[in-house]
C-alpha cells in the first residue's frame, strides 16, 4: 500500500470540487481506503481568472487545464479530475485520459421561472448562455430570442436568473445534479435539437502515462463503456476542430455491440445546421468518430468553417 497520500488535482469551482470528491469517494470504496489516503489539491487556472469574455475569444478549453497539467508533469499531483467536455482533444506529451467514471445524463437542462420549455418562452425573451453550441441551437429554434453572454460558475448564473437579469438559461443537467441542484431544472432538452457537447456528463481522470501505481488504482473505478463513447466523440471532434468558434454537438450511444454517433455543426446564428449519423461495431469506436467527422466536414463544405 502506499505510504504517501495520492494527490488529486482539481480546479476550485464548486462543480470541480464535487467531481474530485466523487472520484475520491469511488477510489475509497473500490480499494477500502480511508479518506486520508488521498489529498485534494486545488489549482487555480488561467481560465478561472477570466470571467468577462467568452472562452472562444480568449483561447478556448486549454485555459482550464494548463496549470493542472503542469502539476501532473512536475509530479506535484498524481491525477487530475476533469469534466470530459472541457478537455482539449490534444493533451501534452506524457499525459493521457486514463479513466472515465460512468457517464451521467448527457442532456442540457432548461431553467426558467417564465416558461416550461424553450418553445413556450414569450416572444423576444432573453436567454443567458455562453456556450456557442447552445446559443446557436437556441437561435435555430427561436430566432426571436435574444441570447446574452453569460459566464461565471453555475451558482452565479442561477443568481442572475433569480434576479431577473435573464428569462431563462441552459446548463448541463449532469453538472447541476453533481452540485445537488437537480431540482432547479424546469425541463430537459431533447438530444435531437440539443445534441450535447462532446463529453458532456462524463467525469474523466488525467494522469501520467506509465505511472503504474496510479493506473492500477484507477482501473477499479474506470468505466469502459463510457470510454468507448468518449473515444468516438473525441475522434469526431479532433477531425472537426478547425475552430473553437464553431458550434458543434456530438453524442455516441451504445446498444449491444453497436455504437452510434450523432454529430452536428451549426452557424453561430443558427441559420444553418448539418447533421450526421454513423454506426458500427463498438470495437471501432475511434474509426466511427473519425469517419463521422470527415463526412460532416464534406457535408458542410469549406466555406462553413471559414467565417
Ligand atoms: N463548461 C463548463 C462545464 N463543464 C462541464 C459542465 C457540466 C458537467 C458535465 O457536462 O459533465 C459545465 C457546466 C455546464 O455546461 O452547464
From TrEMBL:
The gene is hemC. Its EC number is 2.5.1.61. Keywords: Porphyrin biosynthesis, Transferase. Pfam families: Porphobil_deam, Porphobil_deamC. Residues 230-297 form the Porphobilinogen deaminase C-terminal domain. It comes from Roseibium aestuarii. Pathway: Porphyrin-containing compound metabolism; protoporphyrin-IX biosynthesis; coproporphyrinogen-III from 5-aminolevulinate: step 2/4. The lineage of its organism: Bacteria, Pseudomonadati, Pseudomonadota, Alphaproteobacteria, Hyphomicrobiales. Its cofactor is dipyrromethane. This is Porphobilinogen deaminase.
Amino acid at each position: 500500500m502506499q505510504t504517501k497520500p495520492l494527490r488529486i488535482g482539481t480546479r476550485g469551482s464548486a462543480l470541480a470540487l464535487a467531481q474530485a470528491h466523487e472520484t475520491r469517494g469511488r477510489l475509497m470504496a473500490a480499494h477500502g481506503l480511508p479518506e486520508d489516503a488521498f489529498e485534494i489539491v486545488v489549482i487555480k487556472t488561467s481560465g478561472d481568472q477570466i470571467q468577462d469574455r467568452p472562452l472562444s475569444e480568449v483561447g478556448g478549453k486549454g485555459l482550464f487545464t494548463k496549470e493542472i497539467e503542469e502539476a501532473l508533469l512536475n509530479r506535484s499531483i498524481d491525477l487530475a479530475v476533469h469534466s470530459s467536455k472541457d478537455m482539449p482533444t490534444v493533451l501534452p506529451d506524457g499525459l493521457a485520459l486514463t479513466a472515465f467514471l460512468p457517464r451521467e445524463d448527457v442532456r442540457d437542462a432548461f431553467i426558467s421561472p417564465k416558461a416550461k420549455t424553450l418553445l413556450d418562452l414569450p416572444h423576444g425573451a432573453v436567454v443567458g448562455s455562453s456556450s456557442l453550441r447552445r446559443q446557436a441551437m437556441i437561435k435555430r429554434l427561436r430566432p426571436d430570442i435574444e441570447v446574452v453572454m453569460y459566464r461565471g460558475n453555475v451558482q452565479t448564473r442561477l443568481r442572475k436568473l433569480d434576479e431577473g437579469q435573464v428569462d431563462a438559461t441552459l446548463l448541463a443537467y449532469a453538472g447541476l445534479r453533481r452540485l445537488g441542484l437537480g431540482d432547479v431544472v424546469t425541463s430537459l432538452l431533447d438530444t435531437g435539437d440539443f445534441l450535447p457537447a462532446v463529453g458532456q456528463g462524463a467525469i474523466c481522470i488525467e494522469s501520467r502515462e506509465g505511472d503504474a501505481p496510479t493506473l492500477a488504482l484507477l482501473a477499479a473505478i474506470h468505466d469502459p463503456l463510457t470510454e468507448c463513447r468518449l473515444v468516438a466523440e473525441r475522434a469526431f471532434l479532433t477531425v472537426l476542430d478547425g475552430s473553437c468558434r464553431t458550434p458543434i454537438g456530438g453524442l455516441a450511444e451504445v446498444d449491444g455491440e453497436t455504437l452510434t454517433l450523432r454529430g452536428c455543426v451549426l452557424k453561430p446564428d443558427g441559420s444553418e445546421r448539418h447533421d450526421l449519423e454513423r454506426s458500427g461495431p463498438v470495437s471501432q469506436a475511434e474509426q466511427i468518430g473519425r469517419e463521422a467527422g470527415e463526412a460532416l466536414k464534406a457535408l458542410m463544405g469549406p466555406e462553413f468553417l471559414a467565417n
